[in-house]
Design goal:
binds adenosine-5'-diphosphate, six-stranded mixed beta sheet, 232 residues, Rossmann fold, single chain, 9 helices, alpha/beta
Length: 232
Amino acid sequence: MRLLECSDLNMSYETVPALKDLSFFVDAGDYLCIIGENGSGKTTLLKGLLGLKEPDSGLIEYIGITKREVGYMPQQTTIQKDFPASVMEVVLSGCLNREGFRVFYGKKDRELAVKNLETLSISDLAGKSYMELSGGQQQRVLLARALCATQRLLILDEPTISLDPVATSAFYGVVKSLNRDRNITIIMVSHDVSAAVQNASKILHLETTPLFFGSVEDYVNTDVGKRMLGAG
Ligand code: ADP
């Protein structure tokens, strides 16, 4: 089932193009990695997908899913790292997006937060202060938060950028199991091409224009894929 389709997308800042002639789609169950150098348009595309920036032309269509059902895990900034809240509060705040603006959490919200802490094996951290956690633990908390917003589609922006190699591979393992075992569709922006090829099912490689969109199996056999993986 198709969840999202972008057709002939063009996006720019003032008159400078950031994305040109981009078409791709996401089906339920996909694990799509969006890769590309700095400045290749990845963040601009996420802004478009999240409705934070209007395209100049072209279409972004959610099909069979609403924007409200999308869970978003933003890139972590230094300020967020020092956020003075408990883990439970951070995870619960993911519930707020689901039904429009609300001030109070209900019983269902709390149950969902507890369940998502369990899913990510961080129940023991619930009462801790978010800012005292390791980078890897903080990323799991943010992922649990995003899971409170969605059962279906997660968008992750460079989730492992500040993690050490062990925490990075553990994080990729968690995302992969959410995709495989819970059938949650994943869209992840990543710098890490080899991890993308190992974990994802599809690749979108951007360089303002799309260099490649398709399956990982096809990508590794293209010239650009071989070059990125150091085999060409
Ligand atoms: P990436 O996420 O792949 O690093 P971006 O989408 O952030 O790439 O940037 C794509 C292009 O748009 C770059 O040339 C960048 O300089 C430009 N750009 C990004 N954000 C802005 C902005 N707020 N104002 C002007 N230009 C921008």
